[in-house]
Amino acid sequence: MSKKKVAEKVKSAVKNKNLHTLLITVIAYVVITALISEGVLSRHYQSLLVPVGINIILAVSLNLTVGFLGELTLGHAGFMSVGAYAGCLFTTYSELPKWVEFPIALVIGGLVAAIFGIIIGIPALRLKGDYLAIVTLAFGEIIRSVINDMEITGGAGGLKGISKYSDYTIVLIVIFLTIVIIRNLVKSKHGRAICSIRDNVIAAESVGVNIVFYKLLAFVLAAFFAGAAGVLYGHNLGILKPGTFDFNKSIEILVIVVLGGMGNITGSVIAAVLVTVLPEVLRELADYRMLIYSIVLIAMMLFNASPKFRAAKNLVTSKIKSGISFAGVKIKSLFIGKRKGTR
Description:
mainly alpha; ABC transporter involved in vitamin B12 uptake, BtuC; 79% helix
């Protein structure tokens, strides 16, 4: 098979996956809207919709660095915090309409986090393994301490009076963009270069892959989406406190990525939903809630490491994807039929 045919095949597969992602996003929106309108979802579970979406964005973006690049970083909460404060400060002091200032705030939050990603990434990404993890963890703690002492951010008391713009509709749109952009990147030649660094750095460098550039590319893009997630977070709660973005938050995101499978975007989405919702489902068990939550996480990790469980999971996933593909073909044929009828 020629290179041209392989490229066309990959391009077609990516288009189909993008269509599947769009279809799933639309279905999720319709189902959530129906559940809310019918009163099935209580106010408590409605309040979890945005946090679930934020954790999905954080997990998918961190998966680019940890899963596809193969570098352990613990500074994702730091990027989330600088993006959150940048975006929320913009909406607090600007006098623009919501539909103008909120999208701009998302971009500002992402860009500020990406700039910090460049500043930290250039020296830090020359390190490997535990050393990189320690440096990125220190970055997150430094950022938290600096924000804690700044007057413009409200200090330890937090930044208050933030407009509550975030809702599940906006979050679903950002989730869709995050998944599509990262998935398309991974399937491109740049993504293959990033994955080659994970598989074997020496071999990748020997064939001309610019190690520093591609490491920085993955790091900065992950930081961008973490910053955008921070803006969504701030405009959901209406207040930002530095203590929220400590190393525990970075560990939580990393747990989601590992639980869903490193290099597995679908797994990150499912794990983010489970890790966010499970503690709230177990809230009625009071003192035993976190114990049961920990046991469930350990059990899921053990099952995830089992070859038989992975095979069963892949079988179920393939059936779901084939069902979505069938639905997509049906919808596409329906639209084509209507166009032919109009002619």
